[in-house]
Design goal:
The chain has about 400 residues and is α+β, with helices and mostly antiparallel strands. About 30% of the residues lie in helices and about 30% in strands. It is built from ten helices and 18 strands. The chain has a seven-stranded antiparallel beta sheet. Strands 11-15-16-5-17-18 form a six-stranded mixed beta sheet, sandwiched between helices. Strands 12-13-14 form a three-stranded antiparallel beta sheet, with helices on one face. Strand 3 and strand 4 form a beta hairpin. The chain is globular and about 70 Å long. It starts with a strand and ends in a 14-residue tail after the last helix.
Length: about 400
């Protein structure tokens, strides 16, 4: 469960911005909130704003932070770090911070870095409700709490400037507290930034081996108005044939590929009287087949789902139902965070005021700002969609094409 995320010096984000999932004192949709200790946590957050105002930059920050935690331990000396600083601040460090809950324990993890090295890094945890430090780092100097003293000796032997202590320690030491912090990034946080992912393979595997998931998906399709009566998924390991490779491929690479098994997936949608290959289906149906099984898994296991432009290729009512399931179907602690242009969802009958955020570009240094709707004067019965389109919360395009 994500409680809070902040970052600075990422793409269009120059100064620190914060996405806070903790609910304020508003009692709207009180029963839909997630409870942890004395916290009330929002299960959903939607980020709105015009093109090129930084919506994707916020989510990219989450994706980069996750990627760094998961891959830092394999970096070689001198490898450059994954970084996309603000164009007017290339020499300033990039900073990330997340406060999250995993395995019923609260953590705060933060680090700052430049292209070549980690500058500062700290991990806190609160196993009994009281926050304490696991380790802190300043450059190459690492200090750990007494319970985690082996971190210091490991760092003296193995730490290099471009590696994160958390990533390195998890792969070398057996501390449950460190493992759980790491597992939030590897299992609890799911980030979907574009269609370049392996979700189709996952969906095919789930539908092949989990009849319950397949039946749930077919039921969902029927409720969307689809007349698909069945789905035939298939995945298999096989060797590629020479005819499948480009004719101008170098012989050495061709020989290597032909000797390595590859995973192939196929999906047929079955209608009354005929069937279609997945590529023959509409883009919307293709996306639903790729998306829904992972989303069902995310929901059932209480993960945090981060998605850029979830509405792409999907009908607005389907998107509203998906998001609404996270908000109102409280059988788990699952969360959804999405950047979107779908104004159909910009509705206080769906979201609380602290669940809607707006990005804008401040012309001073061309920097992104991020503000929740709750920071504006906004009544509970306000037509938020109309006011958004009138640029009351952030600037949106009006009369862009003039004769």
């Amino acid at each position: 469960m994500l409680l809070n995320f902040s970052c600075s010096n990422v793409r269009s984000i120059r100064d620190k911005v914060t996405l806070d999932l903790r609910a304020n004192s508003d009692d709207t949709f009180e029963n839909s909130l997630i409870r942890f200790e004395n916290e009330r946590v929002n299960p959903a957050c939607a980020i709105y704003g015009s093109n090129a105002t930084g919506k994707t930059s916020v989510l990219t920050g989450m994706a980069i932070m996750q990627s760094m935690v998961l891959t830092s331990h394999i970096l070689q000396p001198g490898s450059l770090l994954n970084r996309a600083p603000h164009r007017l601040s290339p020499d300033k460090p990039t900073e990330y911070e997340m406060e999250f809950v995993w395995k019923k324990t609260r953590y705060i993890y933060r680090f700052s870095y430049d292209t070549q090295k980690i500058i500062k890094e700290t991990l806190y945890y609160a196993p009994n409700g009281r926050m304490g430090v696991i380790f802190s780092r300043d450059g190459m100097k690492v200090k750990a709490a007494e319970k985690f003293s082996r971190i210091e000796s490991m760092c003296k032997e193995k730490l290099i400037p471009n590696k994160l202590v958390l990533s390195l320690a998890v792969n070398n030491l057996n501390y449950e507290e460190l493992s759980n912090a790491y597992l939030f990034y590897s299992e609890g946080l799911v980030v979907l930034m574009n269609d370049n992912n392996n979700w189709l393979e996952y969906s095919v595997s789930k539908m092949e081996h989990d009849k319950k998931i397949k039946d749930m998906f077919l039921k969902f399709l029927r409720k969307t108005g689809s007349d698909i009566v069945d789905i035939k998924p298939k995945s298999e390991q096989r060797l590629m044939t020479a005819a499948e490779l480009p004719p101008d491929m170098p012989p050495a690479i061709r020989a290597m590929i032909l000797n390595q098994p590859v995973l192939t997936t196929t999906v047929k949608t079955i209608y009354k009287g005929f069937s279609l290959e997945l590529i023959e289906e509409s883009m919307g149906t293709q996306k639903l087949i790729k998306l829904m099984c992972p989303i069902m898994d995310i929901f059932q296991k209480g993960k945090t789902f981060v998605c850029d432009e979830i509405e792409c290729h999907l009908h607005p009512l389907i998107v509203r139902q998906l998001v609404g399931r996270f908000i109102k179907g409280k059988v788990s602690d699952a969360q959804i965070i999405c950047a979107t242009h779908d104004v159909e969802m910009l509705d206080l009958n769906l979201f609380r005021r602290d669940q809607i955020y707006f990005t804008d570009i401040n012309p001073d240094y061309h920097r992104t700002t991020l503000k929740p709707l709750s920071s504006y004067q906004c009544r509970k019965d306000e037509n938020v969609q109309r006011k958004y389109l009138e640029s009351k919360y952030c600037r949106v395009a009006k009369d862009a094409w003039e004769e």
